[in-house]
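Let's study a protein:

___
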Amino acid sequence: MSPDQQRPGGLSAPVAKAPEEHMKARILAVDDNPINLDALVALLGDSYDLRVAIDGRSALRLLDRGFIPDLMLLDIMMPEMNGYQLCEQLKERPALKDIPFIFLSALDNEEDETQGLILGAADYISKPFQPAILLQRIRLHLELKNYRDKLEQLVAEKTRKLREAEQKALQQEAIYRELFNNMGNGVAVYGAIGDGTDFIIENLNRSGAMMFKTPLTDVLNKPVTVLGKGAADGDLVPLIRRVWESGQPEQLAARRLQIDDHLQWIEGYLYKIPTGQVVGIYDDVTEKKEIERKIIRAKEEWEKTFDAMADCVTILDRDLRIIRANKATHDLFGAPYSSLIGQHCFELFAAENAACTDCPALATLADVAQGSQPLTHQYRGRTFDVSCSLLTDDASSTPYLIHVARDVTEHRQLQEEVNRAHRLASIGELAAGVAHEINNPNGLILHNSQLVKDVFQDLQPVLEDCLERNADISPGGLEAEDIIDTLPQMIDDINGASRRIKFIVTELRDFSSYDNNDELCDIDLNQVVCSSAYLVKNTLKNATRNFQVALADELPLVRGVATRLEQVIINLLINASQALENPDEEIRLETDFDPSRQVVRVLVKDTGTGIPEHLRDHICEPFVTTKRQKGGAGLGLSVSTRIVKAHNGNLIFVPNQPKGTIFILELPAGEN
């Protein structure tokens, strides 16, 4: 018999132990009658872990030693401490107050049973008890306790998980809040007032507060109109209402808002979230609009200048077809504006089916130089001083011609009269002084022009720095940004004119030919792709929300000039951005390697409008563009094609499916 089975006062109640005793339910029986205890031991000892105590104090000592029963059987009438008092003691102990107990008592009146139940008894059984009923009641209350314990465990586990989920939700909310407040775009959350007649600003991130130049405390839970004059007078509130009612996202076109004392251009995108609010994402495009305004103004000024020229100026393609003609040309031939486009210059000026003899345009194309030639067109009886020059840049492979025809008929007639009067008088003087008056000054010009050019090249970095710090000066009437590009050409013009005098020729030296003297080096094309994408990140951000970059691993190096290849990729990315019709369309930039052909490739894929079929054979030619209404010059792909050819590569395109275009840049790998 173990010590914890000893009864106080020397009375013992042996309990049969099973090998799996630790699996049995624990029961504590308290009764001052040994006969009752022996009966309980006989009835319950084999099925339960039964402990007995002969009075209340013995029961408390057993509990204090660590025996916590699953159920207690209590007699009521006991010396020193009756069953009711023992219950009160148990209820005062947190670890014991929830143990179910059953009163076994000879007291069978209603008041005693009520008193027991009031004290928290799970059941009340009168003595003498029926063993089957007692066993059934014990099983029932043990099962109830088991269910209660499991339920408490489930509740505790559920509570733990809910707390963890709440903590995680709080962490996620903190992350989202940090992202929200640190976004570069302005983000506003709008809530509807009533049936959507107006909207309040429920939230605004820091970028939005800076964009609209207002403290958060001044706009939160305020009407939309506090963001700036024009938010309500325009169509912002109706647009928010449409999105709120339909659930369909909409683009907010750029508009001007009166913020404080200045105007600001804002554009954005609005959509409805599941909670019912409308979210607006805004970009400050004031600087972009200012640049667009300057570009449009420059274009208008150029067109006005072009049409204000008194000479007949036309732009020709390689086949001598007119692409553009100024007002003076239309006026000379009495033709409506733009009606001359597509005609050959020789059809217009000479009424011929072929180019004129000694045509300066053909000479310019043949020698890539500027040509000038006085031509007399018999059917009009007029003399034109015709000059041609190339319209190209460093990378253009298909130049166009600037054809300038000046009507010099009267001037030449007067000049002939003057020459006839002075010819005999001047011929001797000219012959005597030609060496001194022409050769010597010309030699000085030739020498000094080269010296000036060398000095300018040495001073160019200093001059660029000076002009950058003093952008508003205009030396010699030239704009600051034109000096670096214009002065070298002016010096070369002087040098070229001097050489023309010296050798008595009618052609200028070539100032516009593509001469790529950059040193070739090994290039990681992935780095070029990444730097190109970074340089146009704002353009891509404004064009699409779906820009993806996929770089091939261990891409072979290519030989070339990194800045030139950057120019090509930037042109392709800008073209792809301009081809998109909405921000949901996609641009994908990829690199890969074709080991069978030893070719490294860059692919620019877009899902935009694509290239019209009638332009696909000419899209890489100069001045061919799908964006002329937007101010496109049509030189980007022409420049890119020439750069790629200079790298022994190919630039091709194929239609993307179901819509859009894929441009593929192919370059030989390694030393190939």
Summary: DSSP finds 17 helices and 22 strands in the chain.
